[in-house]
Amino acid sequence: MAAMKEMTRRFSAEFAIRPFIERYEEEAMTLLAEWAEDECAHVRRLVSEGTRPRLPWGQRLKGFIEAPDKCLPLLEKLKDDETEYVRRSVANHLNDISKDHPDLTAEVCGRWLEQPTERRLRLVRHALRSNVKAAHLPSLAVLGYDAEHTCVVRSVLDTDRVVYGSGLTFSAEISNASEKAVPFMLDFVIYHRKANGTQAPKVFKWRRGELSAGQTLRISGKHSIRPITTRRYYEGEHRLAVLLNGVETPIGSFELVGVEEVVA
Question: Model-level pTM greater than 0.90?
Fold first, then answer.
């Protein structure tokens, strides 16, 4: 552990430290609590990054996946670290926790924003990115997105048939029924047809802004459906919906055609 503390000043050690945490958890966590106050930012970052339960390309720490509260005292020490490099790791650690414990992550972030600073807000936004993408309502509430007073009053899908290589055009009218201005986050969801005929959702970012008291706003959108390396398209029915502050409203369905000709 002492050797890794020195190594991390020069290059990454968050992968090497994980077997030691697994085998000697109590001793390792005692040391890491001390390192969280080290003068070197690389050492402080190792405290957060090395204990991430789902570190990409790293050994998963099953004990921390099941009991993430073991790491929260370390993150508490580092949440206001003077270095963005360290705070970014704390955000990524919380995002890892959100994969298995979304409510806990929202609770921690909400507590941290009881005394908001610009640094904490930036950290929380990054920490909650997976929860936001999943339309987790408690997380959206932490970020100020009101699902109670905002609603989609009208939505339109301009066509029910899309030729592969072209795209969709659609619109939505959103309204704020409250007596004060509220922020809004509007996304759209395409339920893509899979090879077995089922549909799988994919969320796309659309627009963020603020609705004045009583305001209704019309927003238009476009989305290309063309060959890309990260997705295989299949002909047949697809569905489109919108997410306003985490609440889903269906727009309609469309048939995708012309895929086989392009692939052939």
Answer: no
Give the DSSP per-residue string, 120-138. HHHHHHHHTHHHHHTT-HH
Element at 35 (helix H, strand E): helix 25-35
Please answer whether residues 239 and 249 qualify as being in contact, where contact means their C-beta atoms are separated by less than 8 angstroms: no
Side-chain half-sphere exposure of 113, counting CA atoms within 13 A:
20
The count of other CB atoms within 10 Å of the CB of residue 89 is: 25
**What is the C-alpha to C-alpha distance for residues 128 and 212, in angstroms, rounded to an integer?**
25
Q: Which pLDDT does position 21 carry in this prediction?
A: 96
* Residue reference for tokens 């970012």: 205
* Structure confidence by residue, pLDDT tens digits, 181-227: 999 999 999 999 999 999 999 999 999 999 999 999 999 999 999 99
List, for residues 53-92, the tens digit of each pLDDT value.
Answer: 999 999 999 999 999 999 999 999 999 999 999 999 999 9
Q: Which residue has the tokens 């659309």?
A: 206
Q: At what angle do helices 118-127 and 84-98 cross, to 10 degrees?
A: 40
Q: What is the Cβ-side half-sphere exposure of residue 197, based on CA atoms within 13 angstroms? A: 0
Report the residue count for the chain. Answer: 264
Cα separation of 74 and 85, whole Å? 16
